[in-house]
Design brief:
Layout (H helix, E strand, L loop, with lengths): L8 H8 L5 E5 L6 H6 L4 E4 L3 H13 L11 E4 L7 H12 L5 E5 L16 E5 L15 E2 H7 L5 E3 L3 H10 L3 H5 L3 H4 L1 H17 L7 H13 L7 H10 L6 H13 L30 H7 L4 H5 L2 H21 L3 E7 L5 E8 L4 E6 L4 H17 L10 E6 L2 E5 L5 E4 L3 E2 L1
Parallel strand pairs: 1-4, 1-5, 2-3, 3-4, 6-14, 10-11, 11-13
Antiparallel strand pairs: 7-12, 8-9, 9-10, 12-13
Helix pairs in contact: 9-10, 9-13, 10-11, 10-13, 13-15
Length: about 425
């Protein structure tokens, strides 16, 4: 593991194991859950191995103590294959009061069980996503989101990558195996293989419901065409019909829910601040994927295609930035939201920390006119938020693809994604 690329989640796992008995690391396939978790475990049970899974299912069915044998921390990889593990582990923690004793990893949510204990105080869930640019060593990390919340902006820097470099990184995605692959053509296949696995196998394995691979791909493609937008499910239905795929709303919802359980679809929730104006807040989530490479694959877009279609490039760039901002926000006890109101004001991302601090970020591929539009929106938001009832923004930022990081005279930051870290 000497070539292991450090993940921001490593620190969160280390801290969580000090005060809870079990951590559950959830996220899409191939994002690095197993590799990371094995660094913390002394015993690993790989339930994706059919024989191993059958043996442990028998232990669980019989209530055999051998189920939880092994040096601790004991890790169960793909634990959702034996959902009863949850309650056995919870009971074991109640009895032993052990801390950091178990690690569960899962690339799919287990089948719901209304009788399952919540695990509060004993089990902590941590979401893992594909790698950010800082983790893949493609950001110089000269500007820290955490520092901006604490100390404000202090220095300028430059990202030397070209727009074409960003297009390639976006299409390749944050998949660890693709990042370490030196052959770019091979690296670009990771997302394609991932999508194929999703629609041909995973979409049925998630809950045992037989689903059509062609229909699954069509629904995902429609979702991709509406990425970074708050499209209603009826909009997706019309898009499917326009492309000769007839689906009723219930079927579309079934497939979308399955993809959410597989951590593929990763929508952004709406933010609800206190406003001075009488504008109504829009509460619809923004359609989003866990990694922009999935969108590029579904749209059959490569780096050259994006360079000749900057509108599509901009939407996929936003998807990549949202992924990175979520990873950075997670590491500083924050969450990413989207803002829309009834008067047409929209902000791409809001980072809201648990301590009440918040920041607003507009995402623009680049260009003076686009940046000015983003600045105008940010300053308007600053005016309409009621800072007598909540804190003023810690910072306002336009996040761009390349160039110099700097602070404008109006106080708004302009920062390339390749300069950012947590």
């Amino acid at each position: 593991m000497s070539n292991y690329l450090e993940r921001l989640i490593d620190i969160r796992i280390t801290e969580a194991m000090k005060y809870v008995g079990c951590i559950v690391i959830e996220g899409p396939k191939w994002c690095g859950k197993s590799t990371t978790s094995k660094r913390f475990a002394k015993t690993v049970v790989e339930l994706q191995n059919p024989n191993k899974c059958k043996t442990y299912m028998m232990y669980a069915d019989m209530g055999d103590k051998a189920l939880l044998d092994g040096a601790k921390p004991l890790m169960f990889d793909e634990w959702q294959k034996i959902p009863d593990l949850w309650d056995y582990i919870r009971a074991e923690i109640d009895e032993t009061r052990g801390k950091g004793s178990f690690i569960l990893t899962g690339s799919a949510k287990p089948i719901e069980n209304s009788g399952r204990h919540s695990g509060i105080g004993r089990i902590k869930r941590i979401v893992m996503r594909p790698m950010s640019l800082w983790e893949s060593k493609e950001s110089n990390g000269t500007i820290s989101v955490g520092d901006l919340f604490k100390n404000g902006y202090s220095c300028g820097s430059r990202d030397s990558k070209s727009l074409k470099d960003i297009a390639y990184i976006l299409c390749r995605g944050g998949w660890p195996q693709a990042i370490v692959e030196t052959d770019k053509s091979i690296a670009l296949n990771a997302a394609k293989d991932y999508v194929s696995s999703l629609v041909e196998t995973d979409i049925t394995d998630i809950d045992g419901i037989k689903r059509n691979a062609a229909r699954a791909r069509a629904i995902l493609r429609s979702y991709a065409r509406n990425v970074s937008a708050s499209a209603k499910i009826q909009t997706l239905q019309k898009d499917l019909e326009a492309n000769y795929v007839a689906c009723d709303l219930r079927t579309i919802e079934s497939y979308i829910n399955a993809f959410k359980k597989l951590f593929v679809i990763d929508d952004v929730e709406a933010w609800s601040p206190r406003l001075r104006s009488k504008a109504m807040l829009r509460t619809a989530d923004t359609r989003q994927f866990v990694d922009p490479s999935i969108v590029a694959t579904l749209l059959d877009a490569n780096a050259e295609d994006l360079m000749s279609d900057l509108n599509t490039f901009g939407l996929l760039f936003e998807s990549m930035c949202v992924r990175d901002l979520r990873i950075y926000a997670d590491s500083i006890d924050g969450k990413v939201f989207n803002f829309r109101d009834s008067r047409g004001l929209e902000i791409d991302t809001i980072i809201h920390l648990n301590n009440g601090k918040w920041a607003a970020i507009e995402i623009k591929l680049g260009g003076e006119e686009a940046i000015e539009g983003g600045v105008k929106n940010l300053l308007k938001l600053q005016e309409v938020v009621d800072t007598e009832k909540m804190k003023a923004p810690s910072f306002l930022m336009v996040l761009v693809a390349t160039g110099f990081a700097h602070q404008r005279p109006d106080g708004v930051l302009v920062v390339p994604i390749g300069c950012l870290k947590n």
